[in-house]
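User: Can you recover a sequence for this backbone? Please restate the input before giving your answer.

Assistant: Of course. Working from this structure:
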């Protein structure tokens, strides 16, 4: 059986993964949390999953590369510098990084891409997300993933068109921007809505996470799929055959 090492094993996601890992046909190689040494686990595991914190990404990637162990990165709040580190690691090992491992959001990303490609830039795109009160990063990794899908479909990059929140006298909306709004409260697992607002009509595509097990199952599926793969950067849509 494939042994999966968990970076962030005592967190909400780490615990959710441990609960369902056996159902998906994997076993736990071990776990590392704040203050732990990521290297021994990278050596013991067939594949790693990281649901920890952006500050830990660099040492986790270094341990994975040194051991030649593939890694699924679910941690969000990543910067362009983190993405460059992931690209470099993917030259040496198999890596799958995604802001959302669920089947529903992976399909939503495809639908958003399709809608953005077919609708003209006179259809404004706004992304609204809500998460539990403990979440530390905003916009969510999923919101960014959805925004990137829409931006790419329109032949641009998200960094060119992204507007995070609005407050005060910000002026009228400019065409082609993609706006993000983040709500935090209670125990919300993760809600995302992509609004295409046209003249006189609106299309809304969305997803509501009802239980963290949707992310855990996707993460374990991704890990089992990634184990033994050649170096490269892989996508959830490939794992799920979408
Ligand atoms: N891609 C996806 O589908 C999903 C992604 N996420 C993302 O996963 C991440 C974790 O979420 P969640 O489980 O809710 O968060 P938690 O805060 O519950 O857990 C984070 C875990 O990471 C550990 N940690 C902190 N620092 C380090 C470190 N330096 N090395 C190793 N472990 C460390 C913490 O350990 P300690 O307790 O000792 O501090 C804790 O166990 C977030 O970025 C979140 O947005 C969440 C859900 C789905
Ligand atoms: O922190 C969370 O909980 C979640 N984080 C991911 C994100 O940032 O999109 C995925 C999911 O929405 C839950």
């Amino acid at each position: 059986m494939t042994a999966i090492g968990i970076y962030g094993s005592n967190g909400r996601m780490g615990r959710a993964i441990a609960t369902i890992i056996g159902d998906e046909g994997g076993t736990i190689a071990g776990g590392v949390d704040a203050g732990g040494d990521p290297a021994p686990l990278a050596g013991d595991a067939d594949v790693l999953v990281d649901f920890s914190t952006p500050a830990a990404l660099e040492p986790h990637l270094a341990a994975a590369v040194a051991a030649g162990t593939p890694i699924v990165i679910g941690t969000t709040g990543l910067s362009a510098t983190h993405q460059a580190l992931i690209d470099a690691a993917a030259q040496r090992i198999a890596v799958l990084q995604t802001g959302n491992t669920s089947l529903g959001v992976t399909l939503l990303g495809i639908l958003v891409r399709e809608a953005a490609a077919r609708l003209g830039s006179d259809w404004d795109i706004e992304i609204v997300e809500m998460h539990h009160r403990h979440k530390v990063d905003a916009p969510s990794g999923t919101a960014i993933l959805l925004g990137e899908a829409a931006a790419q479909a329109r032949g641009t990059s998200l960094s060119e068109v992204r507007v995070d929140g609005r407050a005060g006298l910000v002026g009228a909306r400019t065409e082609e921007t993609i706006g993000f709004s983040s709500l935090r409260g209670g125990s919300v697992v993760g809600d995302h809505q992509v609004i295409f607002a046209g003249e006189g009509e609106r299309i809304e595509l969305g997803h509501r996470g009802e239980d963290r097990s949707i992310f855990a199952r996707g993460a374990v599926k991704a890990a089992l799929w990634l184990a033994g793969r050649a170096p490269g950067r892989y996508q959830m849509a490939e794992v799920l055959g979408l």
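That completes the design. The CA atoms of residues 9 and 61 lie 16 Å apart.
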